[in-house]
Design a protein that fits this description.
By secondary structure, this protein is mainly α. It is built from 13 helices and no strands.
Amino acid sequence: MKILSFSRCPKVTPDAPNFAKQKLHKLGPISVAEKITLAVFAMLLLMWAGVPALIFGSAFTINPTAAAFIGLSVLLCTGVLAWDDILKTKGAWDTITWFAALVMMASFLSKLGLTNWFSQTVGNAIDHLGIGWIGGMLLLVLIYVYSHYFFASTTAHIMAMFAAFFTAGLALGAPPILLGLILAFSSSLMMSLTHYATGTAPIIFGSGYTTLAEWWKVGFILSVVNLLIWLVIGGLWWKLLGYW
């Protein structure tokens, strides 16, 4: 995949190891501010994982957004960050603004029943085609993967469509284990389709390493290659294991 990505979107970083070593040497030993940042990061991980609620009970459940603001407040109060530092990160504000809107749109599409309606409609349409469970399952997988262009959250996509597409595939006669495996790995492969496909994508895209057109082009090509590998080679392997 790396070779394919580089062939479609060549990026050269000459002497990267030495460059990194020079920068690390220039930074010097870890500072007090960096130690505080590490401690805050560990604290946030514990809060996001729900550890306080597990230890002290449900009364100590902390909302993920509230946890983020707690971490930010600690960094501001300890002087690790200044308010001007936050205002200068225009890329982060851009990301949180439009990504939040996309996530909310995806969530409300699910709440309003559009995704469930879409899933059921697709399943019924494929069933009426009469192409057998193999063809029907492949068509379901393609629709499942490439409908991710309309989602800004992998979790929202999976929660909205996985169960419906799994049920539709079973109705077509697809083996449960095979269908579950294919939909499961497809849920990961679709994460690279767009610059908003998953939570980390906007952050990576915001680094400016690649353009929007390059991301979408390479993301689509990689999705096709990955699907071919998993469906063809993976399908043969699962056949050998007796999953279908």
